[in-house]
Amino acid sequence: MEGINAKYVSKKISKTRWRPVSSSSLQQPDIFATGSWDNEDNSISIWSIGENGVSSMGDEFEGDPQLLCEYKHNGDVLDLQFLDQDRIVTASSTGAVTIFRHHHNSQTLSVSQLWERAHHYPCNNAPCTGVVCNSPEIVTVGEDGRIMLFRADQEGVLRTIEKADSSAIHAVTFLRTTEILTVNSIGQLKLWDFRQPGNEPSQILSLGGASRTGDRVPLHCVDRHPNQQHIVATGGQDGMLCIWDVRQGNMPISLMEAHTSEMWEVHFHPSNPGHLFSCSEDGSLLHWETSSNTDTPSFLQGGRNTSIISRSAIAPTGGNQSLINAWLTGDSSKGHLETTHMLPSQMLSVNSLDVLGQCLVCGTDGEAIYVNRHVPI
Amino acid sequence: MEEVDVEPTTTPIPGFDSNQKHLGFVWGPGDILVYETIYKASGGSAGGCPFVHEVRKDEDIYSPILRKLFNESHHIFVGLQRIREDLPSKNKKPQFVSISKNYRSVIRACMEELQQVAGIVSILLAVELIWNLCEVLFIDAAPAGSLVLHLLDWVRLHKADVDEKAREVLASESPAEHQAYWDVVISYVLQGRMDEARQVLVKQAALQPAARVMFKLLDNLLMKMPIFNPGETQTLTEFDVKWRHWREEVDHCLQDQSFASNRHLEDICKILVGDEDVLLEYKELLSTWYHFLVTRLLFSHPTVKPTELHYYAQSSMHMFLDTRSVPEPLDSILLAAFEFDIHQVIKDCSIALNNWWFVGHLTDLLDHCKLLQSHNLHFGSNLREFLLLEYASGLFTHHSLWQLAVDYFDHCPEFGRVYLELQIERVPLDTERKALKVIRICEQRQMTEQVRSICKIMAKKALRNNRLGSALSWSIRAKDAAFATLISERFLQDYCAKGTFSDLDLIDNLGPAMLLSDRLTFLGKYREFHRLYGEKRFSDAAKLLLSLMTAKIAPHSFWMTLLTDALPLLEQKEVIFSADQTHELMFCLEELTSGKSVPTPDRPMQDEDIETTKIELLRLALARNLAMAIVKEGTVEV
């Protein structure tokens, strides 16, 4: 756990996201945005972790994140994404979707666009729970069971899928440029194809009878494998990590016990998909690593590993025998999967994490942000 | 009733004239709601006032910088509670000392950030001072010999301006002629920092070569001053002997008038023998009575025992302070600490500070060090628990810090759970995510009642917004069969009204949740019937339909609809229902109609007609089907 700094910020952090760096440059990310929740005045903030210039081995003194600018936000920040280098989209508990613009010269934030009642019930507002963007398109989902499609710089709504879900939709991700995947509070994954008119999903997947208790477990987060468009990871209320192949029927490829309570976020590492990160209400942040060809099984290699019980139900469909197979088999006894805790114990819930390059940032209910600049990838 | 310790403070309410009206109030968890009543002070009543005022004592928890204090100390607190009980207390002492230092460093970090806001900084300074003293006296419990050294450290830490002044003086062109030069030297001596004093003195010595001998003599004395080293094998008595020898030497020099020509050097010498009058001349440099106390101890009684401290403390305070001035709260708290009266310290701090943070955490730490006798209060819990409960209850009123309070309640064995049960239900639930966190807290502590009530609140909210799927998932979480039944009724009502199902994605994918309530099971099965019918699997559909009625899964009110659904199956060319099945259907129909045989006058005629037509159609279809079925079953293939 070296290299982790805690920074107390006097607000509970609900979301943290790195500002994207251009894929060609080998730079490490240095700016991240956070959103707060459960405060009377919530805000979004931009932080910098300073120059990563000359770093010596075992560099003890790493710069604290410095606050660059802050802006008031109406309602809890339930989701936050960078649209591009300058703009951030947030989803609010008041049902509003806002685009903020970060002005680098003056280090200020301003509201660039606002859709106030993007998500609503007939009489009230409904919280907007997830936002995902593929510039310039923005897709949002909410507790009202609606999926909205916007375009940045265009006032109106591009498309609404009414009654997409009878329960609250918790998260969304892009599978392809025109296809999205949503997860909801009755444990279903739904695929939507924007090329098709109508309000019906093109596919519905759910946990069948394969889960631990046999109940439908609400799902809270979803992330797509960076290279394989049909592999997604989900996490839900029971803290289990599921890897799905959406082409294949109704059962997840593997199920792994990860956390003891709700898993809030799961992320594949964008450039190194053999690594997966998940964070949870129980205050832990796990780093999942698929290591190939080790003689000693990973659980004997030391470090703080959790035991993994995997119930791999279906063998992977032939074809690509690359690293993704490790996810699909999820069999720890073959020394393929290793997990490490990345944070000290006895923490309040870790609500959000983001990983880019070698840097990891996460925010907790203990009103602290943790930044790790040397994630072993 | 007990007497009050201090005069209560009055807080004026803006816009309220106490001479005119009576004030009404009601207690909240951390504040009071105050309103103007219609009753006049002189009797009689007048028009009311529309305002309600909220009076809050503790503003601190709303300060963003102090929030860091609360969060970080929460982390330390939880870590402290988890220290294993089975370790012998000898091994635990260094752990406790380091935890105490952690708390203090958190306070210091806060102070650094709060430099602008003067009021809170001075309170934090005082708090850290008191905590540090408690650490030295109670937790570290230094014995005679080391005690003075620790107290010296304590004073040095809290009198940082000496170093600043010294830097200024040494940085100047001619340090020895600087205005504050001698102040610096004497301050160093008063703090027992002989090496630094000597270094600064050298500058003066260089300027006055004529008095070189004098300076060398003083330098020698300063260098030879014995300092107790607890690590060495030297015992306290040996040190005492050495120290007395050294003191005699210094006294000798004084008697010899060796320093008579330089007043400053003479003063230093007098300080070294512990001359109290000279010490009091330098009141300004000492600035506080406790500095005076420690300096006095250093030069007169370096082997003072902890039990003797209070005597010196009292006399120091009397000597130092004007007899006219009233002792400040801080002074009486420190005095109580020197008297090793822990309870008095806690009591005075509770009164002086408006937030339970300090006393709560300090008492908890002292309790872990087993320093508090079990001092049972009137209502059964002990002092530590009482203070922690008060602190945590205060936290719970905060819109965000309530999550920290949960851990505090967890570690109050007697009343913590009850407090938590009462408070957790009152956390406002604006989003599903917050509700999930609150429920998780309750589930981890097996507070099933609270889980049910929160889930019910969320389910009702969802139902009101017509989010049947959400409502159902909340009922499943709470295992609330009654609510699940309610939701199924809504679905069925919708179906009867519109003829189609809404939210098919939910009903089709109920899974094992179907078993939560009978009505829900029926809903699932009924939908399955429709699906089978749509797939033209008529015999399966028929079997299912029949079982719904015979197994009594379907509510009676729905039987008519089910029988009507059976009609198209009966009217098919092919015989679907067997003879037995048809008999059963007829039986069901009879059961249904037997209850309706009495015509009621207030039912409109059209309804009656429709009902009777339906029944007649059914009877006809059933009879026909029965006939065809008997024929089919009776036919023998030749």
Automatic annotation (TrEMBL), chain B:
Cite the entry's keywords alphabetically. Answer: Membrane, mRNA transport, Nuclear pore complex, Nucleus, Protein transport, Translocation, Transport
Q: Which GO terms describe its cellular component?
A: nuclear membrane; nuclear pore outer ring
Show the InterPro entries listed in the entry: Nucleoporin_Nup85
Q: Which Pfam families match?
A: Nucleopor_Nup85
GO molecular function terms attached to this record: structural constituent of nuclear pore
Which terms under GO biological process does the entry name? Answer: mRNA export from nucleus; positive regulation of DNA-templated transcription; protein import into nucleus
Domain of life according to the entry: Eukaryota
Read off the PANTHER family from this record.
FROUNT PROTEIN-RELATED, NUCLEAR PORE COMPLEX PROTEIN NUP85
Q: Which family does it belong to?
A: Belongs to the nucleoporin Nup85 family.
* Self-association state and partner proteins as the record states: Component of the nuclear pore complex (NPC).
**Name of the protein described by the UniProt record:** Nuclear pore complex protein Nup85
**Which lineage ranks, top first, belong to the organism behind this chain?**
Eukaryota, Metazoa, Chordata, Craniata, Vertebrata
